[in-house]
Amino acid sequence: MKGNDILIRITIIISLLLIFVGCNKHSRPTPPDDGELCYVQIDDNPAWSPDGQYIAYYHYGVTAISDDSCEPLAMDYTKAGIWIMNADGSDPHLLVQGANFPAWSADSKWLVFMRGYIWKMKINGDSATQLTFRRAFWQPNISPNQDRVAVYNTLDDSAGIWITDFEGKDNLSYWGGGAGPQWHPSGESLFYSIARSGYWIESFDRSGKRKIMDPMGNMVVEKIDFNLSSGMIVTAADGNISTFDINGGNLRRILTGGASGPVWSPDGQYIAYTGLSGGKFISIWAMKSDGSERKQLTTFIP
Length: 302
Hints:
By secondary structure, this protein is mainly beta. 7% of the residues lie in helices and 45% in strands. It has a single domain, classed as 6 Propeller (Neuraminidase), CATH 2.120.10.30.
């Protein structure tokens, strides 16, 4: 148990460092123009299940906040980890203690996530399997036919996108530069982003690649999420959420200020994201694809 507790705390510390310290590796939410940057992170990293029923997300385990402080007053690490809720925000509950960066399998039966290393597990809690045996891998994404997992490595000497198999055989291999990998629904290409370069799509066999769009904002570090139903991509830069098509056209900013981590619903009608709640804390929200009908899905509960 002691070793397990240490692993949970390491994962939480890595998550906090990636969000708060690594500002050159992750686009931090920004407040509205008339606001001051002072918030407490409650939840993060939403992931919508392909069947549309659930949203998985990371909960920090904050148990006390103050109007006079930008830092949490108390944390309960036994509550920190991947939570899952119905798509309307009902029935939120802890699924994997100490884990972060959830991603769904195409059949909505599995999640892959970071818990010190990259793991997979059925959403009923069965069949937990370790997929990587080296640290510093995150942002996992499962291929559509569920035979490979793309992951992002942050270490300078091996930074970039790596590929491992879904069966836990530790067949980890370097694929190429970039961050925030996401498989195209065909399984034949990967989307990714490169800081100061832009958003890209590249064939898995590396026979060809194409820039979709130049950077938005100061950095390009947020992952992009492509939706086959709408043919559109959603991403965030400098706290603003925008959509555009796979050729970089039809660019539209749909939310300004205080947002990050947007992901599509399977039908392309809605977007889940992390957003400021009353300017004090950040939680999970959802909105229509045009930015209307914003609804807060999670909130701070002491």
